[in-house]
Amino acid sequence: MANKRLREVMQRPWVGPLIALIVVYLVFLYLRPDTFGRTQNLVNMARQTVVVGIAAVGMTMVIVSGGIDLAVGSQVALTTVVVAAMSKAGYGALASSVAGIGVAATIGSLTGSMIVGLRITPFIATLGTMSILRGAAKGLAKEQKIDAPARGLDDLLAIPSPAKAWMVFPAGVWILVATAVVFGLVLRFTRFGRHVFAIGSSEATAILCGVRVRATKIAVYALAGALAGLAGVVEFGKLTVGDPTDSFGLELDVIAAVVIGGGSLSGGEGSVFGAILGALLMTLIKTGATYVGLHGWVQEIVTGVIIILAVAVDRLRKQRA
Amino acid sequence: MSAVLELSGVAKSFGGTRALTSVELEVGAGEVHALIGENGAGKSTLLKILAGVHRSDAGKISLRGGIYQPRDPSAARRSGVAMVHQELSLCPHLTVAENVLLGEEPTFLGFVRIAEARARVVKALARVTAGSAAISPDIRVGDLPTAAQQLVEIARALVLPGVRVLILDEPTSSLGQDDAARLFSLIRALRDEGLSVLYVSHFLDEVQRVADRFTVLRDGASVMTGAMASASLSSIIEAMAGRAIDELFPRTAHHPGEALLSIRGLASHPREGSNVQLRDASLTVHRGEVVGIAGLVGAGRTELLRSIFGLDRVRSGEVKIGTFPIAPPSPARRLAKGVGLLSEDRKGEGLAVGLSIADNLTLSRLPFVVTPRAQAEVSRRFIDELSVKCSSWSQPIGDLSGGNQQKIALARLLHHEVDVFLLDEPTRGIDVASKALIYARIDALASAGKAVLMVSSYLPELLGVCDRIAVMHKGKLGEARNRADWSEAKILAEATGA
Predict the structure, then answer these.
(1) Closest partner residue to B370 among A190, A201, A268, by Cβ?
(2) Using the 8-state DSSP alphabet, how is residue B212 labeled?
(3) B328 upstream amide cis, omega within 30 of 0
């Protein structure tokens, strides 16, 4: 019985990345025990994972539904610009953040409507919005960075002050954890979540079963947009400026995180937990490589190898099952 | 008569499953030999062995007196055994000529010898188009109608010199009546040239028209062989099914109640990439009654069910469930009114093959919060009720056999508790035991006061299960009459418009 239970757990898509994460961490711990043995380093790596992690939660839903969103980097940059503009105009942290997230959610639902209504494949549709949003961000910011008061948003990724030491991690990390838990549960244990899986696995079957495919898809892109917006708010806190050229190519890190975490680009597979592990694994490699003294180009090669290995191992696991 | 291809005691296992136990088969020179059997009888495994895809575990195969054991498909072709697969395997973007010679291009230093290639293509095409419209070698295959694509496929099989045995796997499955008739005369012409043809099908009427002799395969073994002319249809059916055919159809008396589904003058737009459309259909299905729809492929039977269900766009006409007309139609609204569709395309539409049994079963009726416990409970109930063979409710449905997959597809409608069952080819491609179970279920549904409208290409099934039967021809639905008024011959006559 226990054995069967164990085998069932081993079937989960996030088992592979979890093992990889632990193994890679142990390697770095062995090489640099004084650095990797410290809590401070863990906190730092968690901080660096927040933006990619939050965006990866949204991307997981998109990829499970059989789609893709290439506009995440542009969306994050646009959000930093919107938040900065609001803050500069005198609005507080909450109003600025809500505006940034609201704009992103609206854009997401428009993207979804376009994919559903015009029947454009998500790859092409978001290739288009990637450019449109980047352009809009530059136009809104008049092609320069917007300096704006941070209004406390810079605390999102700051190490908690001694008075708040009980938090251990910065508030942004807890936002990531909460987002991941909520959407992880939504995807696995709600009707909406099961519908997202069904659409990604076989859209025709979903239609046959009366799933409202179009509305569900639009909701997925709207939620993914909102989460990219949330990631953008945190990014603004990190930069404390609105930067229209920021986060160039971020979408590829986000997609990589989802794929390392067991997501399949043909849809129907993936998990939020796995995607977070994938994002952590990439941060760990970057950080570890820096401490070990590897050059940037080596890091990039190692990251690429990890992505390919993760997917290859996943394929082998499925063939044997 | 000398045998060109001779099999004795051929067996093949995959892991623990014995696909073939003992096959005896003798195909003579210049004869059309029909290989008949239900889906799952082992026909496709046998063909794969002959085509060089698999190797047999035991037994002996000889071709013109010599041992025949091809290493791979191209070795099989070179030994003189050419195969035309059921699903056409042409490259739609290449021209006819390129397709015919694909993989066999005559070359010099890697360059195709254009003149020689051309001559061979023209010759092969001439052979298959004798008596029908010529096919230009330069046209793209994707631009040809299906029947012409089939001829290209046969030309490809015949382009190598020295072909002795031509294997045709369900060649009429995508052809209309006229094209099928032309194909039969081509097959007879090739036979008269001395070619041996192994013709694989489960359509008995077809086999009777084209074959000289036949062999029936059941559960991986050859169970009957003989000359076509002297065999009775019912004895062949019994050999295929392994039992008398009426045992398959348990019948209790049905008591039709009030009208549950009524359609008036229903017509649809054709789906993308198809030119089949529903032109005019009126029909009433009552509670406690099973109504069958017969007709040829392309007559619009599937379109009828899809239009009722809201999957095809309706052009005109009316659908009423009980006394409510409901518009605009969509699958979600139909399901809400208690109408469910079992798709004919199990793998492409009926089931999400990547998802688990539980996910597939409950998809149309999920609670807001989905717990594994509730999923397990529902799934176990139906797994027991329909004797589904599986290791657990969370197993991917793609791992199950066709029959067990179909049981889950049906279970979804049962779980949704629909009142009107639209069943499109409910027993296509499944084993006899699963068929018997599904027939019993349909019978039970009618007894419980549900309405069943089913489409089938298998006439004994329609005659065995349905209370009333209507025939479709070129998009028009005929009158639904009592089963007692029909026979296979009468249905065929109306289906072909005779």
Answers:
(1) A190
(2) S
(3) yes
Torsion angle in degrees (nearest 10) through CA of B204, B210, B216, B222: -170
Chain A residue closest to B416 (CA)? A209
Count CB pairs under 8 A between chains A and B: 79
For the domain made up of B3-241, the CATH class stated in words is: alpha beta
- Taking an 8 Å cut-off on Cβ atoms, the answer to whether A268 and B354 are in contact is yes
The whole-number pLDDT of residue B212 equals 94
Give dist(CA B483, CA B291) in Å, integer: 9
- pLDDT reported for residue B273: 73
Give me the pLDDT at residue B495, please: 87
Instruction: Name chain B contacts of A8, Cβ cutoff 8 Å.
Output: 394
Q: Enumerate the residues of chain B whose CB falls inside 8 A of the CB of residue A193.
A: 370
pLDDT, mean over chain A: 92
The whole-angstrom distance between residue A54's C-alpha and the CA centroid of its chain comes to: 4
Residue A178: half-sphere exposure toward Cβ, Cα within 13 Å? 9
Confidence at residue A144, expressed as pLDDT on a 0 to 100 scale? 95
Average pLDDT over residues B400-406: 88
Q: What is the pLDDT of residue B326?
A: 64
Q: Which of A189-203, B146-160, B201-215, B391-405 has the highest mean pLDDT?
A: A189-203
Q: Residue A231 CB: number of other CB atoms within 10 A?
A: 33
Per-residue confidence (pLDDT) for residue B246, from 0 to 100: 63
* Contact state of B352 with A269 under an 8 Å Cβ cutoff: no
Strands B259-268 and B314-321, bridge-based pairing: antiparallel
| DSSP type of residue B280 | B
Structure tokens at B377: 């409970």
Closest Cα in chain A, distance from residue B305 (Å): 12
Q: Which residues of chain B form CATH 3.40.50.300?
A: 3-241, 259-495
Which of chain B's residues have a Cβ under 8 Å away from the Cβ of A188? 370
Distance from the Cα of A146 to chain B's closest Cα (Å) equals 44
DSSP line for B467-478 = SEEEEEETTEE-
Question: In angstroms, rounded to a whole number, what is the distance separating the alpha carbons of residues A171 and A158?
Answer: 8
> Is B412 a residue whose pLDDT tops 90?
yes
Contacting residues of B for A318, CB less than 8 Å apart: none
Under DSSP, the state recorded for B247 is G
Q: Measure in Å the smallest separation between the Cα of B43 and chain A Cα atoms.
A: 26
Fold (CATH) for B259-495: Rossmann fold (3.40.50)
Does residue B127 sit in helix, strand or coil?
A: helix
For residues B442 and B450, give the distance between their C-alpha atoms in angstroms, rounded to a whole number: 9
Averaged over B72-79, what is the pLDDT?
Answer: 88
pLDDT at A90: 94
Which residues from chain A sit within 8 angstroms of residue B355, using beta carbons?
197-198, 201-202, 268
Q: What is the DSSP code (8-state) at residue A160?
A: P
Span B10-66, pLDDT tens digits? 999 876 667 899 999 999 999 999 998 876 678 888 999 999 988 999 999 999 989
Among candidates A195, A198, A204 on the partner chain, residue whose Cβ is nearest the Cβ of B349: A204
Structure tokens at A296: 């940037």
